[in-house]
Amino acid sequence: MASTETSSEAKAKPDSHDLAGLEAGLDALDAVQSHRTPVSEVLLKKVLPPVVAVVLVVALWQALVWAKVTDEGSLPAPSAVWDSVSKLWMAGTLLEVVWTSVSRGLLGFLLALAIGTPLGLLVARVKFVRAAIGPILSGLQSLPSVAWVPPAVIWLGLNNQMMYAVILLGAVPSIANGLVSGVDQVPPLFLRAGRTMGATGLKGTWHIVMPAALPGYVAGLKQGWAFSWRSLMAAEIIASSPDLGLGLGQLLENGRNNADMPGVFLAILLILLVGIAIDLLLFSPLERAVLRGRGLLVKN
Amino acid sequence: MTNTLTKDQATGRTTTAGYAARIEHVSKSFAGPAGRQLVLDDITLDVAPGEFVTLLGASGCGKSTLLNLVAGLDKPSVGSIATPGGRPALMFQEHALFPWLTAGKNIELALRLRGVAKTERRTEAERLLDLVRLGGAYRKRVHELSGGMRQRVALARALAQDSQLLLMDEPFAALDAITRDVLHDELTRIWRETQLSVLFVTHNVREAVRLAERVVLLSSRPGRIAREWTVGIEQPRRIEDAAVAELSVEITEELRGEIRRHGQH
Ligand SMILES: Nc1ncnc2c1ncn2[C@@H]1O[C@H](COP(=O)(O)OP(=O)(O)OP(=O)(O)O)[C@@H](O)[C@H]1O
Ligand SMILES: [Mg+2]
Q1: Exposed site from A22, A267, B139, B212, fewest CB < 10 Å?
Q2: Does the UniProt entry include the keyword ATP-binding (chain B) (predicted)?
């Protein structure tokens, strides 16, 4: 009964109730259903594969040692490396060594961020600045930052400032270039929409250009961190001095000087692990959050 | 005396000018590969306050160019354009919503740029979402909305500019027929409720007749005003109404004639 009533009413005139109902139906049909993946699936698809890969690499390593491919001095057994980890841990210096490098790396990165961001924005938005230093900035990216260590030591001496200088020279171009390419890729439609809404000049930069360029900027940050960490390790290896404190780079260099192959392996593994951990804990979640918010993260 | 006058100016939406947009002898040319190419030639057109005008023309005849000029995104080569109600709002064929903001925050950004106080933005954004019947979509991300819903949020954002003139550049061209039909009804309702002036660009004759009080036909290369029709059919109309169909046939004939003229030389 009720249904015939509504349908005859709908036929009589296209009143707003009918329209609202039609609209609700269309919205329901079209709306995108988004859901979160369960933890077990994440474990199976994201955590298991790398664990398997690590286990395989260690197994292969052990097999090579057992097969005696080279002597003990060139290829230490995994157990020997593990022994030097626990030795360092017992001495209470393991975390200290890691922290010395990580704190330097992160502080240097933050400095690079504070310099690279306004620099990138200037290059992206001011034609004259872009023409003047744009090419140099992208060229600097391909210069290995290890090349900056000798001049930095001469200018600043063997101290922490020199380390930060090398980090900055390595990371600032990456961060600035990431922002520049992020800004270049902002769809012109957004800029035009912003302008009709009154977002011009600084307002346009703040409300439209910066958020629209965020994905490119975050990619630049990721790369900037990788460059910071590399530069720092180069600086620590080349410029080791007792008053600089023991970082991972010096640990590696000490291992070489003492012909302590397990120590060298340990240092390399730690450098690798820290680089991966920072990326995994800080930059990947940031990147995913940015992309997911925009519906740009493709689920597979 | 002075007191009442200021009050009127502060609250009233009506302008003393008697038009929402005045386009006078506007020409526009672009530098092309074969020298300067004249796209718009001596366009003169008024949009009255509260009037709904559709601008109809073949693809590439300069409709978007004209709308961009009225929006102030570009300058005419010759002639002048006046919009006494301030900067017009513009809606594009693509929704142009910002994907880093939710539906509600997109609208709030327009309010913020207009200078609305922070405390009032949320309520105003929700009122506008209700107006386009998307009351529950405040927190929705752009990619979570369907095409029709996106255009409705874009409409709400355009309305948030509180401009007296709304420019629309084929805003429903990418939608399916049923959704477009629904949005026509919504647009007519909102236009009548808000008493906005609308300049609506389309190449769909039926859409033009369905919506407008006045249909303006542009010729192509260069774009000139070829003819105008006043649509006397009472609103709300439906796109399938006989009267709409009849006028559409007449206008289509004229449009075909315009296009055929180009094949002759
Ligand atoms: N910035 C520009 N530079 C050069 N030529 C342009 C520019 N903008 C538009 N044109 C030219 O002007 C003409 C009209 O373009 P316009 O986009 O205004 O057409 P339209 O009527 O909106 O077409 P459509 O229905 O396809 O949207 C086209 O021939 C186009 O090539
Ligand atoms: Mg167009």
Answers
A1: B139
A2: yes
